Amino acid sequence: MNPLGVSFCGSRLRNPTVLASGILGVTAAQLKRAEEGGAGAVTTKSIGPEERSGNRNPTCVALPHGLLNAMGLPSPGYEAMGEEWRQLKKMKVPVFASIYGASVDDFRRVAAYVADKKPALIELNISCPNTAEHGQAFGFEPSVAADVVEAVKEVSGRVPVSVKLTPNTHKTVAVAKACEEAGADAICAINTVSGMAINIEARKPVLSFKKGGYSGPAVKPIAVRCVYEIYEAVEIPILGVGGITTGRDAIEMMQAGASAVGIGSGVYYRGPNVFRLVCDEMREWMRGNGFASAKSLTGAAHD
Ligand code: SIN
To answer: Is 226 designated active site?
Structure first.
C-alpha cells in the first residue's frame, strides 16, 4: 500500500501535495515540471473570461519571510487555450483548473467551457487580492460567494467544484459554510494575505499595484488557523494552502484538517522537486510517529 495516497473529490492522488494555483505553474510545461517533481496533482494558473495582461512590473518581490506578488491575474482567456488544453490532457496526475471572473455570469461562462475539457476539478478563484474587479470581492460576502458557486454548479456537470477562499476577511468560515450549502464539493484555503512593501529610499511602494498578496513561510500560521476553523464548520474536504515548504508543514496543515496540501511559494524556496522532498519528509515523520496513512493525519489535531 502507498501510505501517502489520498482521495480528493473523486480523484486518486499518489500523494497529498498539489501544485497551488498562483504565481508559478503558468504554462502546461511548468505544470509538467511539477508532476515530474513529484506533485500528486497540479492546479492551473487561474483562467479568465478574456485576455488580460495583468499588472505592470514589478509584480513580485521576495521579502525576508515570504513573497509579495500582484500579478493581476494575467490570462490568455479561456477560448485562446486550445494548445494548452492539448498539453494538459497528457498529464499523468489530476489537473485542477482554476478560473476567475468579474461577474457571476463570467464564472458560469468560463466554468461551462472548462468543464467540457474534463479537468479533475474546477477551482473558483474568488480570492485574488490583485485586481480591482475580478478578485476577492466575491469572497468577502457569504451570499455573493454562494451565488458564484450556484451558477457554476449549474454548468459543471460531473466535474467537482472547489472554492479558493481569502483570509482577508473575518468571514472566511462563514463564506466556507455558504459555499458548502450552495453545493461546493471542496474548499481551498487560503489565497494570499493582503500586504504591502515600501522602498524607503524611493518613498514608493515596491509593487506597481502598490498592494499585493503575501505568501510563503510567514503566512503558514494564518493558513493553519483558517483550515482548523473551516474543518470544524464544514463536511467537505479542504485543500490547505499557505506557507508549506517542508514535510512537517504539510503534516501540520493536514492535522489542522486538510485532506491535501497546496504548495506554491515552496517551489520558489526549494525548487520544482519540493513535492518529492516534502513527501520524503512526511513518510519519515509518519514512520517515526505511528501514522500508517496520510489520510489518518487529516484533522488529527482536533479534540
Ligand atoms: C495573481 O495573479 O495576482 C495571483 C493569483 C491570485 O492571487 O489568485
So the answer is: no
Domain presence at residue 256 = yes
**Ligand 1 mean position to 91 CA, how many Å?**
23
Per DSSP, the residues of 4-39 read T-EEETTEEESSSEEEPSSSS--SHHHHHHHHHTT-
Catalytic site residue from 9, 128, 179, 279? 128
**Who's near 290: CB < 8 A, 6+ residues apart?**
none
Residue 1 lies in a domain: no
- Atom of ligand 1 at shortest distance to CA of 100? 8
Question: Global pTM?
Answer: 0.97
Span from the CA of 87 to the centroid of ligand 1 (angstroms): 23
Domain that holds residue 288: 6-297
Domain of residue 150, CATH code: 3.20.20.70
**C-alpha to C-alpha distance for 260 and 250, rounded to whole angstroms:** 8
Residue pLDDT, tens place only, 139-186: 999 999 999 999 999 999 999 999 999 999 999 999 999 999 999 999
Whether 38 is covered by a domain: the verdict is: yes
Q: Which long-range contacts (CB under 8 A, 24 or more apart) does 199-205 make?
A: none
